[in-house]
Amino acid sequence: MAAFPSPLQKTDTSYLEDAQAYDNILLDQWPRSSNVFIQRTASNIRPGVQIRSLTVTSFTELCGCMLASRPGTAFTFALDLSSYGSERVVSAHLLSITQGLQAPLTADNAGFLPFAMEWFSKDRPAITVTVSDMALFWAHAGSIAHG
After folding, report:
1. Which of 42, 43, 55, 122 could disulfide-pair with 65, CB 3.0 to 4.6 Å?
2. pLDDT, tens digit (0-9, with 9 covering 90-100), for 48-84
């Protein structure tokens, strides 16, 4: 039986109010990395693990590798978004791994995640995001303690 998001869970899709959001490409699946470090991290990651200073592309590929190795699983991260020079970087803390979590209706395509992360970094650089198979993600409204 599939797990459902809490009825109290609200998502934040405010980044979609930006006209540039629709310049993104829809993806059929999460991108994966050929980087051995990212692949190894994806196969060994557990709740509580923190990964610092990944590029947005590397984080997205990490999500792809994690989801490919564990079909039907959703991963919830606390993300801290910052810049290193001109590059956006992500520090990710894996909060939970949930089998069979059904995405909310407001979940978005993985192709929008880099844009959403860039958009949130301007005013709300600490966000909580869940990624799941079928190339979906959602940003949580409000916050979950980043602990």
Report:
1. 42
2. 999 999 999 999 999 999 999 999 999 999 999 998 8
Q: What is the pTM of this model?
A: 0.87
Q: Is residue 121, in this structure, part of any structural domain at all?
A: yes
Residue 66 structural domain:
14-139
Residue 7 included in any domain: no
| Structural domains in the chain (count) | 1
Q: Is residue 23 part of a domain?
A: yes
Report which of residues 7 and 28 the model is more confident about: 28
What number of other Cβ atoms are within 10 A of residue 121's Cβ? 20
In this structure, how many other beta carbons lie within 10 angstroms of the beta carbon of residue 103?
19
